[in-house]
From TrEMBL:
Record field: compositional bias (Basic and acidic residues): 434-447
DUF222 domain span: 17-319
Domain of life of the organism encoding this protein: Bacteria
Span list, region Disordered: 415-447
Stretch forming the signal peptide: none
The protein's name in its UniProt record: DUF222 domain-containing protein
InterPro entries per record: DUF222 (IPR003870), HNH_nuc (IPR003615)
Coiled-coil intervals, chain numbering: none
Source species taxonomy: Bacteria, Bacillati, Actinomycetota, Actinomycetes, Mycobacteriales
The organism of origin for this protein: Mycolicibacterium chubuense (strain NBB4) (Mycobacterium chubuense)
Amino acid sequence: MFDNAEPAQLIDTMSDAARAESSAIARRLEAVAALYHQRREYYTEAQYWRTDVYTAVAAEVSAAQNISRSRAESQVRMAVSLHERLPKVAAVFAKGDIDFRMVQMIIARTDNVEEAVIGDLDGALASRVSKWMRLSKPKLRDRIDLFVAEHDPAGVRVPPIARDNRYFDVAPHVPGMAFAGGVLDALDAAAFDQRLDALAATVCANDPRSHSQRRADACGALGRQEGSLACRCGSSECPAAAVRESAAQVLIHVLAERATVEGTSDRPGYLSGFGVLPAESVRGAAKTAKLKPVKLPGAEPEPNYRPSAALKDFLRWRDLTCRFPGCDDPVETCDLDHTTPWPFGVTHASGLKHYCRTHHLVKTFFTGTTGWTDAQRPDGTIVLTAPTGHVYTTEAHGGALFPALAVPTAAVQTKQPPEGATDRLAMMPRRKRTRDEDRRDRIDRERRQRVEINAEVERQRQAWLTATYEPPPF
């Protein structure tokens, strides 16, 4: 495309594309905000529902954009805040004069500003922000905070308390591996560090692994509550080859084809929560694991509301995750949902699937002219129709990885439940406090902290002035 373009043309193309990208994002957020306001007017009582209007709109956004629920919810919050509190900044964004990075920063740093002054601050920022595009993230933050302080000193965001930001994550990495790490309390980290070193030291001197590799393997021993690390020297006379027993039963689920376990195929398996597991890792785990075949469902539906253990096991492996578009919540945290409500629907693989609790509530309670409907095919495919009439199709993740799990089960007959058969809204879980009330409490708490910080800074400044003042000699 650009083979014969001059450098000046390439620069102009980049600049135009950047502006167009910002304008497109601005238009998208404006549409999200408009959708939220329409849904809020329809669901006037939803503020105390556990699945409130924010969540319901996020479900539509995630399906339309094929993104996760958390990303969609973040987008709804930003869109609503931008267009309700900062319309002049939104207009600058729509022209492409600023980018999404800056808009995110402005929304975050002005969140505590009182409604009485946010309009003036919006105008002041809108007239200047296009000149700040070259600023680094710290400089941009400081520049915005300066304007916030001038308009509402108590509205300057308070740095988070470091202790409140502690976390520890375990997440998939390359196939067969995972990443683990986080920010811990210093004393807990010291104890963890020493425990890994102690476990790594329980092997003999001929163990071929490096110290770092032994510490990594010690995490598994620690998770199984074992008192030592298995030595890999290979010697039958290894002095570290004492009997190692686990103090806890740790259950790890791996899905694989029989041929992989038996060594006649190198098709990878699946480690629940972590994704694809190489064939050699599957066979290594199978040596000491309890092997349990997944039983395919029969043609006839089961007679009860709750599925049998065998059917639940099949559905777990067929679905692997929530079946709502864009949602990857694992089945361990999901609800089993009758596609057609019981007793009009059936307890069968063709009529059951997993939804996370949030999307289960959205499908169940956000009904009617602005609600969702779903249908299920015999192979487990779900066809959802959004409140707008848009149709989204999701296939079972386990069935896509292991085709034997997606072989169509028997088509079963269901009855259409009569309109108004139940008062669904009476069963909707309720919040004790609305999302806006929680936000207001958080802002009030931070504003009080900022007032105290400002008062302490002023006290120290006055003390310094007093200490450095020298009276005249006459």
